[in-house]
Design brief:
The structure holds four protein chains of four kinds. Chain A is mainly alpha-helical. Chain A has a single domain (26-289), classed as MetI-like (MetI-like fold, Orthogonal Bundle), CATH 1.10.3720. Chain A has helices spanning 2-12, 21-44, 46-49, 81-117, 119-133, 137-148, 152-179, 182-189, 194-230, 242-254, 259-289. By secondary structure, chain B is an all-alpha fold. In chain B, 78% of the residues lie in helices and 0% in strands. In chain B, helix 1 runs antiparallel to helix 12 (275-303), helix 7 packs across helix 8 and helix 10 (219-256) runs parallel beside helix 11 (262-271). Chain C has a domain at 2-220: P-loop containing nucleotide triphosphate hydrolases (Rossmann fold). In chain C, helix 8 links the parallel strand 7 and strand 8. In chain C, helix 4 (107-119) crosses helix 5 and helix 4 (107-119) runs parallel beside helix 7 (155-168). By secondary structure, chain D is an alpha/beta fold. Chain D is built from ten helices and ten strands. In chain D, helix 3 (111-122) crosses helix 4, helix 3 packs parallel to helix 6 and helix 4 (127-140) packs across helix 6 (157-170). Chain D is globular, with a radius of gyration of 19 Å. Classes of the chains: A mainly alpha, B mainly alpha, C alpha/beta, D alpha/beta. Chains A and B meet through helix 6, helix 9, helix 10 and helix 11 of A and helix 1, helix 6, helix 7, helix 10 and helix 11 of B. Chain A: The chain crosses the membrane at residues 21-50, 93-116, 128-148, 154-171, 209-235, 261-279.
Chain lengths: 290, 309, 326, 271
């Protein structure tokens, strides 16, 4: 039978699951993972590694270019740019991680509940998601800032609300597809509880998708948080933060010192690229496993 | 027709809910609306009375909301506490700048994204590799970083473009908007290129394309009438979503290039706690966003006969 | 007169590190106007064989051997020649019409596009011709159907549309790849009847790819049975069903339950069907064969002529196998 | 006689009366009644859209009937939410095997675990006993110990269907519903599974409800048959009699469409 032929062909082409994780990432994936590890380590070890106190102004170093003492020069207040870049990943990365953790947890719970319960519960959740979708993500964050005042908590709250419907929509449609499969019906007929089926069958089968989804959302969250900080509404000065440094660096650049803006911009781009590559690889594996 | 009516009704519901939330937010602020409206300003009793009057703080919540909504429907969003000007007047001129910026960026996105994506989809190998790599790079760089880089290189370094400001006359404005529009469009164009490539690839592998080939139709004919035609459906959907998200992206870009549009007004209003302006801008953005989505749905329905039942 | 002559056809697709053989040493001949059935289970390579005849192999596939159509070598054709072959001389009916007809184009578009492109019809002529073709395949209200989209038609109607499209080209050979597998039994009967009748009227030859031996036997002049990428037996249909010469053919027939008789337990072929690349050096069927002997593992059995049958089994001459009794 | 209307005796395992299922405006199943005796095999035959699968899903409780009643092993099945204890009790009465061998197993669950989970839900066994019983069940369906540690994708379609059968009989139900359970399999595998099902019924006295479009398969596996079309039962009777001398035009057309030696496809006006 040709239909089963095709099914079988698709299944035999799968990658062996036992292949080592690194090899499955591919060379580019390994580079991306290494870059993220290096950034994380650097920022954790910044108190030891950074040559200067990131917050100490030095008028002699203000808007200075690169020099042996200050490899990337100084910012408008004369603070060492390299030291500030080393510290700067903390807020740039921890905020998005929190946003993704929260939105993935809330979104997945909502999605699986809606997909399993179906009927009215699903209709209510879907309408709610539709309404949330009618507002561009960054607007949520800005409104939250308008209410709570500039700062990280408002942005995290706003972006969590903004990201949750994306997670929920993707997971819900995958969960709806998955729950149509006969193995779920078989578990139900066997007398398994709804919670048991969701936790033991549905969730593990959706896990690769959820991971791929949250990794690629992480890239967007880094960009969004940095953009809001750039606008002056997120992380507040004098904290060393990449988004903020692009902002102050733009000012310095018009006055002849582009290294602060370039360095911070480049680092954000590299981190996001690395996260995207990882998300892409994980997503591709998920596709092959289907 | 019933489809359109249903969609319009849904749209109205979304707008009512959004407006309710936007209005209600004022009351979620710690300390209540009064503390919020006064913000860091210290109010004299007269000012406080004036604010109470303007925001009808003595009426019940629903009455106030309905009154505000009624006014908003007539284009009256109240008076800005900072500018001491009608909010609608503040919005008017700035909307044009933002609309022009978004339109400019849309043209760039569709032209570059669809062309590059189609090319990459149809030509596996070098063209595909180059385009995919460029798209990945462009996707990783945040809008504001692109903007800052363009300012540093093209405007400050090479002096090809004006750095800041809106410009005079239509051509002048376009010239001034070129860097902002490129900034705004780069990431989205890359995203659209990816989607286009993926959907062209997917269609190329479809069974009905095999049928067309098995009938001896010329490859050009197969590509045009079957592959591209079918691939256009997801591309249109994503284009719409992208354009809608440009409305939000313009907030950032206007700030980089110091353009006086809705976005920069929005950010200033937030910083200065000018709530009448915040409410109005959010409503305008949501309305535009929802309208763009409606247009996309209509396009998809026209393109895909399976959707019209 | 031989219309299609396939000699020693092999198809392999690239796998992780090496080649994966799907079709191996297939010889097949079809005379003009003749109907030949190619029968096999999943992985037998029957569908790949049919696609290869039209050059529709997956990207990177390696094709060996000769395919000669009406004196011309198909394997050596330029793209233009191949297109001309597909356009006017060899046409294909696919298994799943819902996937194989563009869902966003109307039925009319589907039927007329080839008429306009290949036969130089004007759109109006093509419309009229398409309506007549639909009438030929038993769809009376053609003008209305032409304006409909595939999702508005049932699977059976859609498969008739596919057949009408094939007839439009007036080819000399129709390749029908499981044309009725996705359909209900009563619809299958009708669609096969239409295909059979119109093919005979127009003197077209047919290669019917199917897993259903009884269906193939009822509609084809001659049958070839495939196993693991090779043809194991070829005979006239009636002879093959009465006196199968290959143990696999016999096993396939006997393991299928009958609507006329009930047996306590069905005689089964143990194990599962394998693809060409999964089989060893000897006879691919040997591990499942009730009549296997040690030397069956030694080498691939050569095809031998045996009283009008061509059989790839070293023991074919000494075995008396049971066929379908009716 | 399973097919004839009579009062439910002690040996009746399913008694369904006036079953109806609507999906919005569409009526999938319309006034279907059936009885099934202990250890009997009842086939439900029909083409796509006949309502046979919906009927099967209502019997096992995957769909709630719009109307009608189902009594299983003497206990009426009340519609609506039921306690988990009641659901497990129902599971011990009736199990189901689906058509698609690829998606009827959780792709992340090892074969041994599939069977053990099912034992765990219904019997209190020590881990050792459970493991032993799971291996017995796998052997009963023609698999061996080495399959227990495999994932579904390491098995062929026929082997997966054997696992699905083992999972179903693990809870020792009175009735097994087989929804097109051999339709997706190759001919040579189909025969193996049909024989396996015959063996299981002979050994355990389980009753089958066999949903199928394939008259030849139905002929081989069932004692009684219902022919369904458009949601209604058009004919019922003992399978052999029904197929050798069908009374209704629809059944005759269905039978006439089955390819067999000497058969020619028949063209009918488009309906």
């Amino acid at each position: 039978m040709t239909a089963t032929d095709a099914l079988k062909a698709r299944r035999t082409l799968r990658l062996p699951r036992t292949a080592p994780a690194l090899r499955r990432l591919g060379p580019l994936g390994v580079v991306a993972a290494a870059l993220l590890a290096a950034v994380t380590l650097t920022t954790l070890l910044a108190p030891v590694l950074a040559p200067y106190d990131p917050d100490r102004p030095d008028l002699f170093n203000a808007l200075a270019g690169a020099s042996p003492e200050h490899l990337l020069g100084g910012d408008a207040l004369g603070r060492d740019v390299l030291s500030r870049l080393m510290w700067g990943a903390r807020t740039t990365l921890s905020g998005p991680l929190l946003i993704i953790f929260l939105s993935t947890t809330i979104g997945t719970t909502l999605a699986i509940t809606a997909a399993w319960a179906g009927g009215k519960v699903d209709a209510v959740v879907s309408r709610l998601l539709d309404v949330l979708f009618a507002v561009p993500g960054i607007v949520f964050a800005l409104v939250a800032v308008a209410v709570l005042g500039p700062g990280v908590p408002g942005v995290v709250l706003g972006l969590t609300i903004a990201y949750t419907p994306y997670v929920a929509r993707v997971v819900r449609s995958a969960a709806l597809r998955e729950r149509q499969l006969p193995y779920i019906a078989a578990a139900w007929v066997q007398g398994r509880s709804a919670v048991g089926i969701c936790v033991r069958h549905l969730l593990p089968n959706l896990r690769p998708l959820i991971i791929a989804q949250s990794v690629s959302a992480l890239g967007f969250a880094v960009i969004d948080l940095a953009a809001i900080s750039f606008l002056g509404l997120g992380v507040q000065p004098p904290t060393a933060d990449w988004g903020l440094m692009v902002k102050s660096g733009l000012d310095s650049a018009t006055r002849g010192q582009p290294l602060e803006a370039l360095g911070a911009g480049l680092l954000i781009a590299l981190v996001v690229a690395a996260v995207n590559v990882l998300g892409d690889r994980i997503g591709r594996q998920e596709g092959e496993l289907r | 027709m019933t489809f359109l009516l249903r969609r319009l009704a849904g749209l109205a519901v979304v707008l009512v809910v959004a407006s309710f939330l936007v209005y209600g937010l004022l009351y979620l602020v710690p300390g209540g609306p009064m503390a919020f409206l006064l913000g860091n300003r210290s109010g004299t009793p007269e000012q406080i009375a004036a604010i109470r009057e303007q925001y009808r703080l003595d009426d019940p919540f629903l009455v106030r909301y309905l009154a505000w909504l009624g006014d908003a429907l007539q284009g009256d969003f109240g008076t800005s506490l900072v500018y001491r000007q009608d909010v609608s007047a503040l919005l008017g001129a700035r909307s044009t700048t933002t609309a022009l910026l978004v339109a400019y960026a849309t043209v760039v996105i569709v032209a570059v994204g669809v062309a590059a994506g189609t090319l990459a989809g149809l030509r596996p190998g070098r063209a595909d590799a180059v385009i995919s790599a460029l798209a990945s790079a462009a996707l990783a760089v945040p809008t504001f970083v692109i903007g800052v880089l363009l300012v540093i290189v093209l405007a400050l370094g090479l002096g090809w473009f004006p750095v800041f400001g809106p410009g005079e006359g239509f051509l002048g404005r376009l010239h001034h908007l070129t860097l902002p529009a490129i900034t705004l469009s780069l990431g989205s164009a890359a995203f659209l290129a990816r989607i286009t490539r993926a959907s062209v690839r997917e269609e190329l592998g479809r069974e009905h394309v095999e049928t067309a080939r098995s009938r001896g139709l010329a490859e050009r004919h197969v590509v045009r009438r079957h592959v591209l035609r079918n691939a256009s459906i997801p591309v249109v959907t994503v284009t719409g979503l992208t354009v809608a998200s440009l409305l939000a992206g313009s907030v950032v870009v206007e700030n980089v290039f110091a353009l006086d549009g809705l976005g920069s007004l929005f950010v200033r209003a937030i910083l200065q706690r000018d709530f009448a302006v915040v409410q109005a801008v959010v409503l305008v953005l949501v309305t535009a966003f929802v309208l763009v989505n409606l247009v996309v749905d209509l396009c998809c329905k026209a393109l895909d006969p399976r959707l019209s039942r | 007169m031989t219309l299609l002559d396939v000699r020693n056809l092999g198809v392999a697709v690239p796998a992780a590190r090496d080649w994966r053989t799907l079709v191996d040493g297939v010889d097949l001949a079809i005379g003009s106007g003749e109907a030949v059935g190619l029968v096999g289970e999943s992985g037998s390579g029957k569908s790949m064989t049919a696609r290869t005849l039209l050059g529709l192999t997956p990207p990177g596939a390696r094709v060996t051997g000769d395919i000669v159509f009406d004196g011309d070598s198909v394997t050596g054709m330029s793209r233009r020649e191949l297109r001309a072959l597909r356009a006017r001389r060899v046409a294909m009916v696919f298994q799943d019409p819902r996937a194989h007809i563009n869902p966003v184009r109307s039925v009319g578009d589907f039927l007329t596009e080839a008429l306009i492109a290949h036969l130089g019809h004007t759109p109006t002529e093509a419309q009229a011709r398409a309506t007549r073709l639909l009438a030929d395949v038993g769809i009376p209200d053609g003008a209305r159907r032409l304006r409909q989209y595939p999702h508005e038609l049932s699977g059976g109607l859609l498969q008739r549309v596919m057949i009408a499209a094939v007839l439009a080209a007036e080819p000399e050979l129709v390749l029908a790849d499981e044309p009725t597998t996705a359909l209900d039994v009563t619809t299958q009967s009708e669609v096969m009847a239409i295909l059979d009748e119109l093919r005979r009227e127009r003197g077209m030859a047919m290669l019917l790819i199917t897993h259903d031996l009884a269906l193939a036997a009822a509609t084809c002049d001659r049958l070839s049975v495939m196993y693991a990428g090779r043809i194991v037996e070829t005979q006239e249909s009636t002879a093959l069903t009465a006196t199968p010469r290959h143990p696999y053919t016999s096993g396939l027939m006997l393991s299928r339950p009958s609507i006329d008789t009930v047996v306590d337990r069905l005689p089964v072929i143990p194990g599962r069907p394998v693809a060409a690349y999964e089989s060893g050096d000897g006879c691919a069927f040997e591990p499942r064969c009730a009549h296997a002997e040690a030397h069956c593992r030694d080498r691939r059995p050569a095809v031998q002529d045996l009283a009008g049958a061509r059989v790839a089994c070293v023991r074919a001459g000494e075995l008396t196998l049971q066929g379908d009794t009716a | 006689m399973t097919s004839l209307k009579k009062s439910a005796g002690p040996d009746t395992v399913i008694e369904a009366a006036g079953l109806r299922k609507e999906f919005g405006p569409a009526v999938a199943v319309d006034d279907v009644s059936l009885t099934l005796e202990r250890g009997a095999s009842l086939a439900v035959v029909g083409e796509s859209g006949s309502g046979k699968t919906t009927l099967a899903r209502m019997l096992v409780g995957l769909e709630t009937p719009t109307g009608g009643t189902v009594t299983v092993c003497g206990r009426p099945r009340k519609p609506g939410r039921v306690s988990s204890a009641e659901r497990r009790r129902r599971a011990r009465e009736m199990q189901i095997v689906f058509q698609d061998p690829y998606s009827s197993l959780d792709k992340l669950q090892r074969i041994g675990a599939v069977i053990e989970t099912s034992l765990d839900l219904h019997f209190s066994l020590t881990p050792g006993e459970r493991r032993k019983r799971a291996l017995e069940l796998l052997e009963a369906v023609g698999l061996s110990e080495r399959h227990a540690s495999m994932l579904p994708r390491q098995l062929s379609g026929g082997q997966r269907q054997r696992v699905a059968i083992a999972r179903a009989i693990a809870v020792e139900p009175q009735i097994l519903v087989l929804d097109e359970a051999v339709a997706a399999l190759d001919v040579s595998i189909q025969a193996q599974i049909l024989n396996l099902l015959a063996d299981i019924r002979e050994r355990s006295g389980i009753a089958y409800v066999f949903i199928s479009h394939d008259l030849a398969v139905v002929h081989q596996i069932s004692d009684f048959a219902l022919v369904m079309s458009g949601g209604r039962v058009v004919e019922r009777g003992a399978t052999r009699a029904l197929l050798s001398a069908p009374q209704e035009a629809y059944t005759r057309a269905l039978r006439a469409a089955v390819p067999r030696p000497g058969w020619k496809p028949e063209r009918r006006p488009v309906g």
